[in-house]
């Protein structure tokens, strides 16, 4: 009779412990080439330059939020994040709001 191979057991890590481990990993901002690739996947051709400009001026926390939603395949929320970043940049005076801009306009 053949002897069964023992499977390696993966240790059980409770969910709060996993969240603590994730907190310890520092956020690495994606480089410009990776951001362009993401925006090519996410936005139409006309909106890409503005999206690139917004993300280049965004803080690490804002880019992290954008990347979180992108990695979860929530494209609509990514665009909403770009809207909110643009509004904050316009309020702070770092960007101007144009009439033909794709982001930063109120939805309703």
Oligomer: single chain
List the helices and strands in order: HHHHH
Termini Cα gap: 72 Å
Which whole number gives the mean pLDDT? 78
Q: What summary fits the major beta sheet? A: none
How many extended strands?
0
Q: SS-based structural class?
A: mainly alpha
Q: What would you call the shape?
A: elongated
Q: What is the helix fraction of residues, given as a range?
A: 55-70%
What portion of the residues fall into strands of 2 or more residues? Answer: under 5%
Quickly count the helices.
Answer: 5
Rg (CA only): 20 Å
Question: How do you describe this structure in short?
Answer:
The chain has 108 residues and is mostly helical. The chain has five helices and no strands. The longest helix is centred in the C-terminal third of the chain and has 18 residues, at 75-92.
Explain this structure:
- With 108 residues, the protein is an all-alpha fold.
- The chain has a domain at 30-92.
- The protein has five helices and no strands.
- The termini are far apart.
- The model has no long low-confidence stretch (mean pLDDT 78).
Q: Key terms for this structure?
A:
single chain; mainly alpha; 108 residues; 0% strand
List the helices and strands and how they pair.
Elements: H1 15-24, H2 32-42, H3 48-57, H4 60-71, H5 75-92
């Amino acid at each position: 009779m053949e002897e069964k191979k023992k499977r390696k057991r993966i240790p059980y890590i409770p969910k709060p412990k996993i969240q603590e481990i994730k907190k310890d990993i520092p956020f690495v901002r994606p480089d410009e080439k990776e951001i362009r690739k993401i925006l090519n996947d996410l936005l139409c051709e006309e909106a890409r330059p503005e999206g690139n400009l917004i993300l280049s001026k965004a803080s690490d926390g804002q880019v992290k939020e954008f990347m979180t939603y992108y990695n979860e395949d929530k494209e609509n929320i990514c665009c909403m994040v770009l809207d909110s970043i643009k509004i904050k940049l316009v309020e702070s005076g770092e960007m101007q709001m144009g009439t033909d801009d794709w982001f930063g306009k109120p939805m309703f």
